[in-house]
Design a protein that fits this description.
Elements (H helix, E strand, L loop, with lengths): L1 H12 L6 H20 L9 H20 L1
Length: about 70
């Protein structure tokens, strides 16, 4: 979730896409975001897939926590 959040912030700032930090964040978050983008269309210029991913990851974390306790 932290990597997705940082990726959102960096996209607002407009960092160079060749920056190693940006490339690393893209590489680790894209496998999560890409399937969501395929199901969920963009809303104009807004890409809501990171927000959906954070919500889904949060729900999964809560579910797993309840299973283990």
């Amino acid at each position: 979730m932290a990597a997705i959040f940082i990726r959102i912030i960096l996209s607002w700032v407009g960092m160079d896409p060749r920056n190693p930090v940006v490339v690393f964040l893209h590489d680790i978050t894209e496998p999560i975001l890409s399937p969501i983008r395929q199901v969920m269309p963009r809303m104009g210029m807004l890409d809501l897939s990171p927000m959906v991913a954070i919500i889904l990851l949060s729900l999964i974390a809560r579910f797993v926590t309840r299973l283990l306790t």
